[in-house]
Design goal:
The chain is mainly α and 67 residues long. Helices cover 70% and strands 0% of the residues.
């Protein structure tokens, strides 16, 4: 699995679990949901993603882009 797909899967899981925790446990979990969304939004413009750097260190490969 590529870095990009892992990031999308983990972000989706984080949003799902934090929204579920906000519903069943405490509304403040929505701050975590917002944090994940803001990080996805800023990485679309800046290209900076801390999780991508960690995954690269762990040996995962990025998707190949063709021009």
């Amino acid at each position: 699995m590529s870095i990009e797909r892992i990031i999308l899967a983990v972000a989706g899981l984080f949003v799902f679990f934090s929204a579920t925790l906000a519903y069943y446990h405490h509304i403040y979990w929505l701050f975590f949901t917002a944090f994940v969304g803001i990080n996805l939004f800023q990485s679309a413009f800046t290209g900076f993603c801390p999780m991508a750097m960690i995954l690269k260190l762990l040996g995962f490969k990025s998707e190949k882009t063709t021009a």
